[in-house]
Structure formats: C-alpha cells, structure tokens
C-alpha cells in the first residue's frame, strides 16, 4: 500500500514573518484557499503574537475566522505564549502550534523567557484547553526550535532536546515537531535526533521543520523519512526565517519538497503545477522578496508521475 507524507504549508506564517510588505488579509485568505485547492493538507495560516512585535500578523483573528469554513485542509496557527493560545482558542482554531526553543539564548531572544519557563507556559496552555472543554476538538502541536543548533548559542545538547520532547509529550502535546530554525542540521544529525525522540515519546506523531540555509534542507527530509517522520513543514517559494535568530533564512521549498516526496513514492495529495501557479501569484504580491526553488524554475521532469498514479 502506498504511504502518505504530509506537508504543512508555513508560508503564511514563517514565510511572512520576515517580510516587511504587509500582505492584505484578502491575499492571505486567497493564498490559503489556493494551497488547500492544490491539495496541501495543513496550512499554518497566521501567528497570534503581539502586533507590535510582528505587525504582519495584526490580522491574525481575521485570517483565522476567514478560513473557518475551509474543509479541504486543516488550518493551524502559531502561538508563543498563553495569551496567544487564548486568542487562537477564541478565534475557534482547531489546531494550535506552540513553540519552545531548546537554546536558552534563542528562547530569551524569541519569547523573552527561559526554556523551562516556556515549558511551564505550555502546561498553562494545556490547562486552558482543558478548562474550556476543548481537549477532544483542539489539538496542540509543540515545536522545539533550534533543536539542531543556534546562531546565538552555538551547540544545543541533543540530550536537552530529547528531555524537552519527553516533557512536552508527558504534559499533553498531541504532535511534536523538531525545528532547524537556523539551517544548521545535517542528515546524520537529523536521523539520530529523530530516532531518539521517537524512542522517547512513544508513537506521538513527529514533524520536521527545516530551513535550507546551507543547502541541506531536502537531504534532511530524506534522513527524517528514514527515521520514520512523515510530516514536513515547507514554504511556497522557500520564503521564511526567524526574525529573532540572526542569519536565519528560508524554509525548504514546498514545490521541491512535494516533488521529492512523490518521487520517493509517498502520496502527498499535492498538485505541484497548481502550487507553482500559486507561487507565481505570491511572487507578484511580494516584489523584492527572495524566492527559491528548482522545480518552479526547471519544471517537472517529463518522466514524473505522482506516486498514487504509479501505484494505481
Ligand atoms: N498577543 C497579543 N498581545 C500580547 C500577546 C499575544 N500573544 N502576548 C503578550 N501581549 C501583550 C501583553 O498584553 C502586553 O501588552 P500591554 O503592554 O498593553 O500590557 C505586552 O504584549 C507585553 O506582554 P508580556 O507578557 O510582558 O510579553 P513580553 O514583552 O515578555 O514578550 C512575547 C513575550 C512572547 C509576547 C514576545 O517575546 C513575542 O511576541 N515573541 C514572538 C516571537 C516570534 O513570533 N517568533 C517567531 C516565531 S517562533
Ligand atoms: Zn522556521
């Protein structure tokens, strides 16, 4: 039987958080709807951070509410503290992605609190979900940022990342994600860390979030696949980066990632030509931004067939 791999489109969140041009809400909604139409199964549509910190997300509630009727893709949002989670719950989000930095220095820079304080904040979010009676309907995914190293701190001990993953799993995370926020990871490290996280967290779904800063993004996807990971964050056109981690650059590119997964025999459900059409539209909305990617430049190989078509 053909296996499925899931891409979560993060262009509307990670992609836009460094972009100075404020994309109008209507364009954000059109972006999400077109991504869903192209077969993307999950869209991280916005971020409930304070508008004075990232003005791009001042319309977070409008975006969340504007996508409430989308049935063909799951819509999720990023939060960095309890207040963000409260805003996301108020906006009716059914999936909330919280993030903790494994690097103490990045945690202080990004969320103005230590890693342990961020883990405590997660417990408050889980308690808030319980108090609202939302445990069965709202899932909490927890991302571990700077899991493979940090531009501010340097080394991030693997033991610490595994300990954080165990803590989050015990405290109520429904899904865990390890993020290479600054593009330091290599395939060997990826295989090793995900192997340890999987062993420590007992079957919880695992996701990977890679940045292609040094050209290893898709090699890291292959290593994560080999370690059993089936969920990947990616951004159309490879937009993205963390404004609180110097030197961070774009996410792995959604079109290229979908091509890779399909070529390796995983069904992504994605129509890559439709994604490329969306990318062209997003490029026209954001003149002056740097877009990356091979498939949109060279086209799909003539020999390319979707994994599901080959299996049929
Ligand atoms: N949404 C809206 N407003 C918020 C908020 C949220 N999620 N969190 C805090 N605020 C408001 C508070 O109400 C307070 O407002 P006031 O000054 O009018 O009273 C103000 O922001 C400061 O709140 P405080 O709790 O002291 O926050 P802080 O200054 O310690 O900053 C974060 C903490 C988490 C809000 C901040 O570091 C942040 O937004 N980081 C986001 C980083 C990010 O998006 N990174 C990229 C993705 S990982
Ligand atoms: Zn990122």
Description:
The chain is α/β, with parallel strands linked by helices and 312 residues long. The protein has a single domain, classed as Alpha-Beta Barrel (TIM Barrel). The protein is built from 13 helices and eight strands. It has helices spanning 11-15, 25-37, 60-66, 82-90, 104-111, 115-131, 158-171, 187-201, 217-226, 254-263, 272-285, 295-298, 307-311; strands spanning 6-9, 42-47, 74-79, 95-101, 139-145, 175-180, 206-210, 231-234. It has an eight-stranded parallel beta barrel, surrounded by eight helices. Helix 3 (60-66) links the parallel strand 2 (42-47) and strand 3. Helix 4 (82-90) runs parallel beside helix 6 (115-131). The radius of gyration is 18 Å and the shape is globular. It starts with 5 loop residues before the first strand and ends with a helix. The mean pLDDT is 96. The chain binds coenzyme A and zinc ion. Zinc ion binds at residues 14, 179, 181, 209, 211, 240, 242, 251.
Outline of this structure?
With 312 residues, the chain is an alpha/beta fold.
Structural class by helix and strand composition: alpha/beta
The CATH superfamily is Aldolase class I
CATH architecture: Alpha-Beta Barrel
Q: Order of SSEs, N→C?
A: EHHEHEHEHHEHEHEHEHHHH
């Amino acid at each position: 039987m053909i296996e499925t791999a899931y891409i979560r489109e993060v262009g509307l969140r990670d992609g836009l958080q460094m972009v100075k041009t404020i994309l109008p809400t209507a364009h954000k909604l059109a972006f999400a709807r077109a991504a869903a139409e192209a077969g993307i199964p999950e869209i991280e549509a916005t971020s409930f951070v304070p508008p004075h910190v990232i003005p791009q997300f001042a319309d977070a509630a409008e975006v969340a509410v504007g996508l409430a009727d989308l049935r063909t893709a799951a819509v999720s949002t990023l939060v960095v503290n309890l207040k963000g989670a409260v805003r996301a719950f108020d906006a009716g989000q059914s999936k909330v992605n919280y993030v903790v930095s494994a690097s103490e220095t990045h945690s202080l820079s990004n969320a103005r609190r230590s890693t342990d304080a961020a883990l405590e904040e997660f417990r408050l979010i889980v308690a808030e979900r319980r108090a609202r009676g939302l445990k069965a309907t709202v899932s909490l995914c927890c991302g571990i940022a700077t899991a493979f190293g940090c531009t501010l701190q340097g080394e991030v001990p693997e033991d610490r990342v595994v300990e954080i993953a165990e803590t989050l799993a015990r405290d109520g995370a429904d899904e865990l994600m390890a993020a290479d926020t600054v593009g330091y990871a290599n395939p060997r490290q990826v295989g090793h860390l995900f192997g340890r996280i999987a062993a420590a967290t007992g079957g919880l779904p695992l996701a990977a979030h890679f940045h292609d800063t040094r050209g290893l993004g898709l090699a890291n996807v292959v290593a994560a696949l080999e370690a059993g990971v089936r969920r990947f964050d990616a951004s159309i056109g490879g937009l993205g980066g963390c404004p609180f981690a110097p030197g961070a650059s774009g996410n792995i590119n959604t079109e290229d990632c979908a091509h890779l997964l399909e070529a390796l025999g995983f069904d992504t459900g994605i129509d890559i030509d439709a994604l490329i059409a969306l990318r062209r539209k997003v490029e026209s909305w954001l003149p002056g931004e740097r877009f990356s990617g091979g498939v949109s430049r060279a086209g799909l190989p003539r020999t390319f067939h979707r994994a599901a078509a080959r299996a049929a």
